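As practice, study what follows.
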Amino acid sequence: MVTQRRPWRDDATENRTLPFDCEGSQKQLPTVELDDWVEEGIEVQNELLWLRLMYWDKVVIDKSERIKNVIDHRLTASILPLRALSKFAPSMVEVEKLLLDFEKRRKSIRAMSKDGVVLNILWDYLEKNFFDRHEQWCFVGKERGIGDQKETVFPLTTKDISDQLGTTSSSDIRRTLHSLQLCGDVDDEPPRVKKVNGASFRPIWFTPARLLTRMTDFVAEDSIDKKMIALGLLPDPSQMNEGEQRGKL
């Protein structure tokens, strides 16, 4: 756990810490440890030593345990020792609720990173049903209109995002998208340019399964998978037979 006033702005660091927002105290605190503080610290050390001697052969950490609705692997691993100790202290805080609160807080922090800002903008457009398909890929749209004598989705471009942010260039947005690898492990590459109503666009392509993975890390909303199913981006498991579900996995 790390105290901080602002996000790290580094996704790798964000993913390996539990943020605790705080501000510098305005109180006139002592500049060196008081004797009372040292005595309290020694008392805590003695209590911890007693716990170790009493329970060293009784506390068993289930390393394979997963906690319902918590996806983050590192967050789960950090709480497993507490889960093991909670068996001996029934009054201990509810670990599941604690983890869910932590995970939601971490997502809100990561949403402020460069990757998070871009992904949340994409999600805003997708929630408005602005997307279209081309073979195994999809692209994010910015609006619907009449093109080629039919209703058409006009692609969202990196310049649109750059203009919306006002502080980041189109090339920086493109580099961020490239690092996110939104097209997943598809062997072929999507077309570089798509023509709509005679105009050429360079769309933002993605595959729904890979996009869901990224959204789960950076978008602080619940049930994104269900929303993507409702939008038609992902297949509804209830409408798939057993073989299709196994293939999807």
The mean pLDDT is 82. The two ends are 34 Å apart (CA to CA).
